[in-house]
Amino acid sequence: MKLVVLGAGESGVGTAILGKQKGYEVFVSDKGAIAEKYREVLLNNNIPFEEKIHTESKIIDADVVMKSPGIPDKVALIQKLVKQGVSVVSEIEFAAEYTNNQIVGITGSNGKTTTTMLTNHLLKKVGLNVGMAGNIGDSFAQQVADANSDLYVLELSSFQLDGIVKFAPHIAIITNITPDHLDRYEYKFENYINSKFRITKNQTEKDYLIYDYDDEVIRDWLSENKVKATLLPFSLVEKLDQGVYLEDNNIVVKYKTEEKIMSIKTLALKGKHNTKNAMAAAMTASLLKVRSNSIRESLEDFEGAEHRLENVLKINGVQYINDSKATNVNATFYALESVKTPTVWIVGGVDKGNDYLELMSLVREKVKAIVCLGVENQKIINAFSNVVDLIVETAGAEEAVKVAYKIAEKGDTVLLSPACASFDLFENYEDRGRKFKNAVRAL
């Protein structure tokens, strides 16, 4: 059996490793250049690959093709494969075949990352062996190959869901649906909505669909389409027969038995959208038999709060992210890993003996420019001057943001993730984060 993997990013390389482990003859093809870290993995695993080209003769005889979520279905090569009856699937579909472990699948236009991280946090905190994957963290296929987890929490984009055939999460969450990626869906919102609902298409009566009851788009779809899974809505405005709702500012989880979880005032994440994310995560944890006091504790101490990968504003198509809490290389690694677009990285401060080499592969792959925000920046300049063409030194948050604004183009991300302490120019990381946010808002 021949498996061809189109796209040698996180999901592609993970699929190649799992495919080889399961006895497939594997070939990887990427139309662009393959990032160094992924090329090394392919070489170390003796997996043949090509880059900067798709050689049709090497692809067309595949039994299964896993295509990267970034490749649209309408591409001529994909159309030809489908016409020939070749199974074209997503990483999620391919990898799910090789695990019997329970899966929580989370999709939505917004909030899916936070909900995924929250759910992962709730389950890990009570000692469950959880793998977090999909659009976040290491690839799902790679984790299935490693077989270290008893349960998977997957953040799923519509693109990943488009490539499923049999995939069925035990618990599915739809956080909300608003128009997004319509260029991939013939500019028809209904196509995009249907894509999101593919998350529940293979669920059975033993499975659950958790969704935002306040979202009219979701309610309308459910009123016109039959779903086998048990429906568990969450709402900020309605008292529900079953699901999650608010009563006197307390989150109430109601399924079979009723449990008050906590006051929304003590949630680590503020804002209505985050209350909804917390509701979805709480319902999931409750279904997986996590006790309500553990859920409450986890929702109170979740680290996804202010200054941790906090989306500040989108200006001229550029997303500004405040990750001032990243005072070490490890935290910055997580931030850079989570960003999916070309990045202007604002970094620096009081170096605590950082080894920047750990970030090298991510910087190579994602960072188009570095803006130094510190008194002493030489170590950063020495570490990255060979891989990043543009490095600018600045002496404060306002100047750093103005420089980043000039460099960034539509579709880019400006990420403040300093990897250093803040005491040279700021009182603390909160002060640094607030000054960054104020400077962004002043643009």
UniProtKB/TrEMBL annotation:
Listed EC numbers: 6.3.2.9
Biological processes, Gene Ontology terms: cell division; cell wall organization; peptidoglycan biosynthetic process; regulation of cell shape
Reactions performed catalytically: UDP-N-acetyl-alpha-D-muramoyl-L-alanine + D-glutamate + ATP = UDP-N-acetyl-alpha-D-muramoyl-L-alanyl-D-glutamate + ADP + phosphate + H(+)
Superkingdom of source: Bacteria
Pathway: Cell wall biogenesis; peptidoglycan biosynthesis
Residue ranges of every copy of the Mur ligase central domain listed in the record: 106-284
Family matches, as Pfam families: Mur_ligase_C, Mur_ligase_M, MurD_N
GO MF, one annotated term: UDP-N-acetylmuramoylalanine-D-glutamate ligase activity
Keyword Disulfide bond on entry: no
Binding residues for ATP: G108, S109, N110, G111, K112, T113, T114
InterPro entries cross-referenced by the UniProt entry: Mur-like_cat_sf (IPR036565), Mur_ligase_C (IPR004101), Mur_ligase_C_dom_sf (IPR036615), Mur_ligase_cen (IPR013221), MurD (IPR005762)
Residue ranges of domain Mur ligase C-terminal in the record: 307-420
Compartments, record wording: Cytoplasm
Database matches in Gene3D superfamilies: Mur ligase, C-terminal domain (3.90.190.20), Mur-like, catalytic domain (3.40.1190.10), NAD(P)-binding Rossmann-like Domain (3.40.50.720)
Keyword field: ATP-binding, Cell cycle, Cell division, Cell shape, Cell wall biogenesis/degradation, Cytoplasm, Ligase, Nucleotide-binding, Peptidoglycan synthesis
A single cellular component GO annotation: cytoplasm
Function of the molecule: Cell wall formation. Catalyzes the addition of glutamate to the nucleotide precursor UDP-N-acetylmuramoyl-L-alanine (UMA).
Family the entry assigns: Belongs to the MurCDEF family.
Designated name of the protein: UDP-N-acetylmuramoylalanine--D-glutamate ligase
Annotated source species: Lutibacter oricola
